[in-house]
Design a protein that fits this description.
Oligomer: heterodimer
Strand content of chain A: 15-25%
Number of domains of chain A: 1
Distance between the termini of chain B: 33 Å
Largest sheet of chain A: 8 strands, parallel
Structural class of chain A: alpha/beta
CATH topology of the largest domain in chain B: Rossmann fold
CATH architecture of the largest domain in chain B: 3-Layer(aba) Sandwich
Number of strands of chain A: 14
Shape of chain B: globular
Radius of gyration of chain B: 18 Å
Distance between the termini of chain A: 18 Å
CATH class of the largest domain in chain B: Alpha Beta
Order of helices and strands of chain A: EEEHHEEEHEHEHHEHEEEHEHEHHH
Order of helices and strands of chain B: EEEEEEHEHEHEHEEHEHEEEHE
Number of domains of chain B: 2
CATH topology of chain A: TIM Barrel
């Protein structure tokens, strides 16, 4: 690597700024498919788990996917083993990964969120928690992340529970994402990550009915990149805490765009589906871009933003 | 060759570029061949995620996601592994693959998923297998037939097609003398469903020593599943579903389980035991 991209994010030392978006990479399943090569060539500098909820969830009925121009709509519905199942079955396997672990959690009340945050942060294997307040697939997940006041209340309830970093995953389905980010920062969030998927629908051409089992879903992929870039910009300008930028990143060029917009870390999401080693490729392309950048990374003031 | 606990061959990590070695017409379908320089030989029932190097997601269009294809044949070719796939152009991805030109690149991720089980693992007394395929779904049965033959396990092959336009691959992928055909328009073999042929076979005296392997459209698979259940014969289905990743990341390929909940077809299938699933008629599944 010609450019040293080692960085510190909320006190966590990371080898580079490329991580995965929650719900777009299952390291346990990937290890079944690719074996130890996955661990030896792990494509991210930190691993963000799929969202867990207090109780197990089966997920939405199929169809769960719909391809769109330059993207896809998903209505997966957060299938997961629940907190107890995660701690017992998944956490020991995720702890074998060579990178820090961020656990994504979602609940429908501050009490349940507290249970999740306490349950995962008391484990040494967990470096940080991402609060999913924005998943558009689950009706109850919307409310908190759409309202600055609700977001602040949630953070005020959770902040005393742990010293570990709390990252708030912002929903893009609001008029002013910066207002929610500022509220999260004011109530003690250590970082924000954005964007989650955009609410989306698809129609089955044969039936003219909604094509997804849950009726609607969330759009991801390059189709949302320009929207994501704008939201990362306005949020980065509004808060002093680090920003994890994501939305349609497929290349080092895209990653640099997000860094230039103010992101400290860049997450790869849908592109993982097209190439399980996409994170590795995005990083090497990012290094190439930075090595060749005119003006230089220092001139661009990038270091101030991600060191 | 690295192997998982269930006999699956592990895929190299990350997609790799394979060159197109050929692409020929076969009835209403096409068979294209890729030269895999570095991947391991797959087991029957495993699949690959495929996307062309050019003309796939460029300029913001469709196709965008890779497409899942069961491998139909695999064999050594000039120091590389030749992988054959059967395709019918029904959407933007499959139409692009139908137009593959020799020498162009295809992004490949695989082999993925759980292979077909050994007959004895499905039923201890099994001495042979009945392979029943419909339409484009005949592909994984071709490699399975060869795998069984190399293990000296006898198999009988039943293949069905809708009509002449929706058929192909039989001569190229199967030894015709062993195959019994059905077609809904009567253009070849029995006029009717391939499951008619299975029904006769399941009434035979020796059916207790057989297991059934099936791949085809959801309605055919569900019929096979119910017929086998009625006859007390173990069956394994190779199913199809839209999937974004093929390796357990997207959770899109959900198939309802008998006991409630869902399996991910890509990592827990695509081969599933008949009794494992609630139904093969999954909304949005099948060849699209």
């Amino acid at each position: 690597m010609s450019v040293d991209l080692a960085t510190t994010f909320c006190g966590i030392a990371l080898e580079h700024p490329v991580i995965n978006a929650s719900g777009t990479f299952d390291a346990i399943a990937a290890r079944r498919a690719f074996g130890e090569a996955l661990v030896q060539s792990f494509p991210f500098s930190a691993f963000v788990s799929k969202t867990i909820t207090p109780e197990p969830r089966a997920g939405n009925p199929p169809p769960r996917l719909w391809e769109t121009p330059a993207g896809m709509i998903n209505s997966i519905g957060l299938p997961n083993k629940g907190l107890a199942g995660f701690l017992e079955h998944d956490l020991p396997q995720l702890a074998e990964l060579p990178v820090p672990l961020v656990v994504s959690v979602m609940a429908t009340s501050a009490e349940e969120f507290s249970q999740l945050v306490s349950g995962v942060t008391e484990r040494d294997e967990v470096a940080a928690v991402e609060l999913n307040v924005s998943c558009p697939n689950v009706h109850s997940g919307l409310i908190v992340g759409e309202q600055p006041v609700e977001t602040a209340r949630l953070l005020e309830a959770l902040r005393p529970l742990t010293a570990k970093p709390l990252i708030v995953k912002l929903t893009p389905n609001v008029a002013e994402p910066a207002a929610v980010a500022v509220a999260a920062e004011g109530a003690g969030a250590d970082a924000v990550s954005l964007i989650n998927t955009l609410k989306a629908s698809a129609v089955d051409p044969a039936t003219l009915e909604p094509s997804l089992g849950a009726g609607r879903g969330g759009l991801s992929g390059p189709a949302i990149r320009a929207v994501a870039l704008e939201q990362v910009r306005v949020v980065s300008d509004a808060v002093a805490i680090p920003v994890v930028g994501m939305g349609g990143v497929t290349s080092g060029v895209d990653a640099l765009d997000f860094i230039a917009a103010g992101a400290s870390l860049v997450a790869v999401g849908t592109e993982n589906f097209r190439d399980p080693a996409a994170g590795t490729r995005v990083l090497s392309e990012l290094c190439e871009r930075l090595a060749a950048a005119r003006p230089s990374p220092a001139d661009l003031n990038l270091n101030l933003r991600y060191r | 060759m690295a192997e998982g606990s269930d006999g699956r061959v592990l895929a190299p990590f990350g997609r790799r570029r394979c060159e197109v070695a050929g692409n020929r017409e076969s009835g209403g379908y096409r068979i294209f061949s890729l030269l895999d320089e570095s991947g391991p030989a797959p087991r029957a029932g495993q699949f690959y995620m495929l996307a062309t190097e050019r003309g796939w997601g460029e300029g913001g269009g469709r196709p965008f996601l890779p497409r899942a294809f069961s491998v139909a044949a695999a064999g050594e070719a000039g120091g590389a592994l030749r992988l054959d796939f059967l395709v019918e152009g029904v959407g933007p991805g499959t139409r692009r693959l139908c137009g593959l030109e020799p020498g162009e690149g295809v992004w490949v991720n695989g082999p993925l998923g759980r292979p077909f089980s050994a007959p004895a693992d499905l039923a201890p007394a099994a001495a042979g297998a009945i392979l029943i395929g419909g339409g484009i779904g005949i592909a994984p049965l071709a490699i399975l037939r060869r795998e069984l033959a190399s293990g000296a396990i006898p198999s009988r092959v039943l293949l069905g097609f809708r009509d002449r336009q929706h058929s192909g691959g039989v001569e190229e992928l199967f030894d015709c003398s062993e195959v019994r055909l059905a077609s809904e328009d009567g253009h070849s073999g029995h006029r009717g469903y391939v499951t008619d042929l299975l029904g006769v076979m399941l009434e035979g005296d020796d059916v207790g020593s057989a297991v059934v392997f099936a791949c085809g459209p959801p309605a055919m698979l569900e019929a096979v599943r119910l017929m086998c259940r009625g006859a007390g014969v173990a069956c394994e289905l190779a199913m199809e579903s839209g999937m974004a990743c093929g390796y357990g990341a997207c959770f899109g390929c959900a198939v309802p389980l008998t006991g409630g909940g869902y399996m991910r077809l890509c990592v827990d299938g695509p081969t599933v035991a008949g009794e494992e699933i609630e139904t093969a008629l999954v909304e949005g599944s099948g060849h699209r």
